[in-house]
Design a protein that fits this description.
The structure is a homodecamer.
Chain A: H1 11-19, E1 25-29, E2 41-45, H2 50-60, E3 71-74, H3 85-97, E4 104-106, H4 108-116, E5 120-124, E6 133-136
Helix pairs in contact in A: 2-3
Chain lengths: ~150, ~150, ~150, ~150, ~150, ~150, ~150, ~150, ~150, ~150
Amino acid sequence: MLKGIHPLLGPELLHAIRTMGHGDHIVIADANFPSSFLGPKVIRADGVDAVGITEAILAHMPLDTFVPEAAWRMEVVGDPTAVPEVCATFQDLVNRLAGDFTVHSVERFAFYEMAKKAAYIVATTEFRLYGNIILKKGVVHPHEVYRVS
Amino acid sequence: MLKGIHPLLGPELLHAIRTMGHGDHIVIADANFPSSFLGPKVIRADGVDAVGITEAILAHMPLDTFVPEAAWRMEVVGDPTAVPEVCATFQDLVNRLAGDFTVHSVERFAFYEMAKKAAYIVATTEFRLYGNIILKKGVVHPHEVYRVS
Amino acid sequence: MLKGIHPLLGPELLHAIRTMGHGDHIVIADANFPSSFLGPKVIRADGVDAVGITEAILAHMPLDTFVPEAAWRMEVVGDPTAVPEVCATFQDLVNRLAGDFTVHSVERFAFYEMAKKAAYIVATTEFRLYGNIILKKGVVHPHEVYRVS
Amino acid sequence: MLKGIHPLLGPELLHAIRTMGHGDHIVIADANFPSSFLGPKVIRADGVDAVGITEAILAHMPLDTFVPEAAWRMEVVGDPTAVPEVCATFQDLVNRLAGDFTVHSVERFAFYEMAKKAAYIVATTEFRLYGNIILKKGVVHPHEVYRVS
Amino acid sequence: MLKGIHPLLGPELLHAIRTMGHGDHIVIADANFPSSFLGPKVIRADGVDAVGITEAILAHMPLDTFVPEAAWRMEVVGDPTAVPEVCATFQDLVNRLAGDFTVHSVERFAFYEMAKKAAYIVATTEFRLYGNIILKKGVVHPHEVYRVS
Amino acid sequence: MLKGIHPLLGPELLHAIRTMGHGDHIVIADANFPSSFLGPKVIRADGVDAVGITEAILAHMPLDTFVPEAAWRMEVVGDPTAVPEVCATFQDLVNRLAGDFTVHSVERFAFYEMAKKAAYIVATTEFRLYGNIILKKGVVHPHEVYRVS
Amino acid sequence: MLKGIHPLLGPELLHAIRTMGHGDHIVIADANFPSSFLGPKVIRADGVDAVGITEAILAHMPLDTFVPEAAWRMEVVGDPTAVPEVCATFQDLVNRLAGDFTVHSVERFAFYEMAKKAAYIVATTEFRLYGNIILKKGVVHPHEVYRVS
Amino acid sequence: MLKGIHPLLGPELLHAIRTMGHGDHIVIADANFPSSFLGPKVIRADGVDAVGITEAILAHMPLDTFVPEAAWRMEVVGDPTAVPEVCATFQDLVNRLAGDFTVHSVERFAFYEMAKKAAYIVATTEFRLYGNIILKKGVVHPHEVYRVS
Amino acid sequence: MLKGIHPLLGPELLHAIRTMGHGDHIVIADANFPSSFLGPKVIRADGVDAVGITEAILAHMPLDTFVPEAAWRMEVVGDPTAVPEVCATFQDLVNRLAGDFTVHSVERFAFYEMAKKAAYIVATTEFRLYGNIILKKGVVHPHEVYRVS
Amino acid sequence: MLKGIHPLLGPELLHAIRTMGHGDHIVIADANFPSSFLGPKVIRADGVDAVGITEAILAHMPLDTFVPEAAWRMEVVGDPTAVPEVCATFQDLVNRLAGDFTVHSVERFAFYEMAKKAAYIVATTEFRLYGNIILKKGVVHPHEVYRVS
């Protein structure tokens, strides 16, 4: 562990979000998501839920303000207006930690297509169905990094 | 870059100090140090000085309080009581960021022997001679990591 | 995830305990343990606690009955008779899932020496100090594996 | 071996089906199937028959209920309505272990095309011709995984 | 599969015994043997029993006639004169396929030491305890290889 | 070497033809063939002629009876009806070891295109020009493999 | 470090610009640039600013005089005529070290497309937004290399 | 193949003897020699006999004149004064191609010890027992290399 | 070094031209050629000029007589009829060592396209501009290789 | 090539001497030196002589002034006081480019032992016997590196 850094970020995930730049995407995937065969590098987070990983990433990674959409979730198959509890929690987390962003819903197979273009996929053991979110990294400004006082 | 994390920590160095545990050592080496052939994995920090890297590491990594010594510098060859300016700066940094630790001086070849057993060596472009320091990681307590408020 | 298998066992950890044989050791290490530089292959379990991983492993892996000791914890430095709460939980888990085994305490540096000879080290984010345990795999008997009824 | 897990699942195959997610395919191929040059990663199961591997996989992996077809076998060349004995056994196994799914027959070269898109191919030593099956993984629900009682 | 070659020999195992020379050892290990951490390269034979693999190897590999001993099994712990059924089968196989060789018994930990010096370890799913054998390759004479008539 | 196996099959070539399945191709190439840059994995057979390698492969690998053509040679540039001596030998070998198959001639650049899709290319030191042949693997039936009597 | 060579050029960056030839491009990217997922090999320069790296490269690498454009910067989003201070510094550096070249501005996404075709991307920790530049290597003439006098 | 170079030298073997220097050893091993587990890199020459490989190597590689012995063969087990026919051929070849050197005989296990220290082992399919030789490379003089006339 | 082989051919380059077959191309590139990013494997020949490497290759590799063109050089930009001195030397070398072949000139970017399809690029330190040549390997006939007399 | 850098330093050799630090050794070896099997990483410089490489390295790398000896050559076997011409040239070069250092002679096998501990061995095609030298890197001072004026 490290001081001042979210403890859910292991070495590989820290490395991953540190390499990401403005506009790169990261997928936080639930336990049933087909993470391993879509193309992007997979970071295993077995035993951790998607909400925890999302919190950990948003603690240190801003969302993109240059574009109208910077966060997406998977639409419920057969019930496009439903908002599962885990998705409502994603929306709350985004508002608390990243700002006034809407987590947009995306049809299942279109979501897979978005995932194929991401920088990384984090494979969690989130039990709840539809516990998937994609985040787009924004610009980090100098005043936001750690400064020795 | 990432919010709340020292900007001098690139992906590889962040990964490195996140993998270190209680009692592991890291060497921050100057531009003339024989970093590449001592054994430990080398992390290049070309163009950065040793003081900057030391500050960045101490910003997130505590020193070990279980043992009497947790930081060492290389003794000046032929002048064992000398304290080069860069070493005085190391001592100041340690006191400001890590606590009441003495940076102990170690004879040149004994310092190389210690370096051989370190977890990592960070190869900086510190111009100043004797700009080398070894740090021993301490325990990180739960209240020290990032917590979402 | 898979049916009938503990969900905390990700692909790498499942693979690991499946390759282990009679008498091989696995270390479940807390967040401060120096896991990466002792020698054995490290399996990251960032964000998971040591008790959860121990439960998951014991759900599928028996302890060794051929020898007098098959489980060990790290002795508290400076207080060899103390039994930290996390260690008491280890003992309960072992009794519930593996049988009548004592989790023996081992002095800190002797524990490191044992860890160097293990098959794997699982690096958890267990916050509690002394949240480390070593388990010795026993023989699996034919009636214990999955059988299609 | 491991307690409660089918013994035909070696470390690599366990790892494979644990990485698969909702909608991913796995091919269980007979001894004459051109497994090695179609693209997907091959897991060798030399000396084991296809029925055994299919049983082992279905013991821990559900089939997909979101789509009309979740299992396929290769159609006999020149006799499209034939149902070889090994294929009848596949159908029985699927019904016993996975539920009310039909194992659909697919023309030989179309079957190869499906195999090219699978996550894995398991190369068995099934002697019987047409001893090939493709399975599509379904969603695993929380009540289906191992739970410590 | 290949004509005239034992079908239990997959590509990796065929490659292995073809690389072995006069005096090299191969271990056929049961499902509980600690195969993975002794040093030699491991060839997985999950789902196959040790007797089948031994038969397949002896079908194509002679034993060494230059030395007094060319085959060994593990002695039963606590009962050094016992001959488990699987070991009797090993002895029969050796006599039928290799000639008049005794399968010598070796104490458990001495057997591990021999295994560490082998060329390969084949990890089977032999359920029967003590289902382990070490074979020493002999010289292959020109009249023994395949000849086009 | 191994008993009952053609001695020209080294470990890598044995491994190769064991991985091939029904319908896969293997190229046996002469000393001037551009083997290394066509795509398939190359197995070196320096110092061996193409006829010897073809004999060794056909000793253990059947040709495909499901399709009208299962063996091809390169047509002489500028003399399409010529049958070089090495090609006549290929035809004899095929008839003796594989059955009633014609070795069809293919124009030089079309032959290269076929070679690009093969599973393997065996690069021999066959001196004779046009000493190249492509073989298509057939089905191996249970009665053709090695059986312990 | 080396005599007569710019100290900001570490081993990997020296290696990189030495492998580049006439017409190859190198990107010097700021701290927010999405360096890692565009395709070219990334050279980390964490802790160094883009102006320093540009100076170091131009100290040893000429720009291309065969074509009308040999240096490019990213256009400010929403303000195409703006010239950020860091870009003015790039222009000064180019004029001082490389000659009479204009640093042309390129729209953000077109700049990404150019970056995808570069030989290397150097990922700096330049804090200033738009601190990105692409340089095209020119011909090195014999009189320009080091000569022992 | 290449002009003026022995055709039995494939790419790997040519590379090998070109990297060898004054005093390095190469083993040419028969079909029963335990080539793969002694340590040195193995170059397969399946299907070629040891005499052919020895001729090919001596065609381009001189033996060492700085030391009293530069070539060794394995002594017949149980008959130390025997000179098998293949060994007599080795002696003839050495005399014809390398000069007035004796091929010294070495006891079997001492020969293995010498082989462990060689630069390379060439694994031939030499059928004749004791068809093994070790050669020590000498100095190549300028007048011996290829010169354009 | 080796007897009878051109000394400028190091292990890697010898290996390369030995793997090439009839019709494969090799590029010998000058010090400014963009060798590293065109695709083919690059063999470094730093410190050697292109004429020396061309001589060394032609000493052992014939040019292709099956096609009208087997050698090409890069046309001078802006002066298509110019014949730089280094190119005249290439033509002389080809005539002396390979026979009556013309070294055809090819426009710069078309030359790059040809280079992308070559088997190898040899990166020399030829100072002279336009010191680039592409050679197409021909057939080696049995009487051209080394023969023990 | 690069401006202001010795052209004989290719990418790998530049990288090598840039990674070396105070006290590390580099061997420049002649064409007969057994470079490949002593342990250190080998950098090929086929076609270049040892004097050229030594000049190139000394152009950018200082020798060590902290110790009494910083350069060594191999003693002539059987004539310890001889100074071959190539060695005299080494001494001249060292004096011209590095300063007042003696190139000490070392007995052949002791020289090999020193070479085993070097950081790198550069394998040249120096024809002259005894064309070997070992150099010990010294400290580079800030005023010696490249500075933009």
